[in-house]
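Q: Predict the bound structure with magnesium ion.
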Amino acid sequence: VPTAGRVEFRDVTFGYPGAERPVLDGVSFVAEPGQTTAIIGSTGAGKTTLLSLVSRQYDPQQGSVAIDGVSVSDLGRHEMASVVGLIPQKPYLFSGTIGSNLRFGRPEATDAELWEALRVAQGADFVREKTHGLDERVSQGGTNVSGGQRQRLCIARALVARPRVYLFDDSFSALDVATDARLREGLGEATAGATVIIVAQRVSTIRSADQILVMDGGAVVGRGTHDELLESNETYREIVES
Ligand code: M5T
Ligand code: MG
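A: Predicted complex:
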């Protein structure tokens, strides 16, 4: 089982079953433990698809995706769940209680651990306001939890599981700027030492990333820090200025 969480893509090409053209074309990069790698790019660039190869919803047709040198295709379901935590672009809840949703990746987590994860995810206040708190019932289509709250519960769920690799797919753009800032401040501490990959729209979210990958049409067309990319990358400048 990978213990550090170094994610490496080597010349990865992937197309969805039945599609003619690949959605990812020759993607290579390394995301290091203890660092934040941000991914930015226009809609349809392949950002979600890239993350889905790390969490192994799909396997690439060519190239390899490895964590600490171990191909993700060699990881079992359980190992995968303890190594990779995906916070999906469309956050979902399982039907059950808030508590059972938060414990999904680590059933033995204590209530105190759930509240700590909720605090970091900026979800403690609204859960406290529910009549039944952690025992409040939720469901996928339920209306007692808003979209933004669902997003924060999914972030908390990932934190409770303590994976080595966090994949945040556009998890912050729906939050107001102040909540976004508070959340990311606490996340830095909560995810310290792990590999963090963040797909983001807001420049404020990615500015401080150790490495930014610029995606366009299924390829990585630029990489570097914010300042480096501003200097050198036309696509990045266009995104930042838009
Ligand atoms: C990249 C296609 C999509 C687009 C390309 C998830 C998914 C995507 N696609 C499929 O054919 N089937 C699928 O199940 O793949 O899409 P993406 O990876 O979702 O792009 P993105 O995450 O960069 O876009 P966005 O809008 O989230 O910023 O041609 O049709
Ligand atoms: Mg996406």
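A: The pocket of magnesium ion (ligand 2) is lined by residues 47-48, 89, 169-170 (CB under 6 Å).
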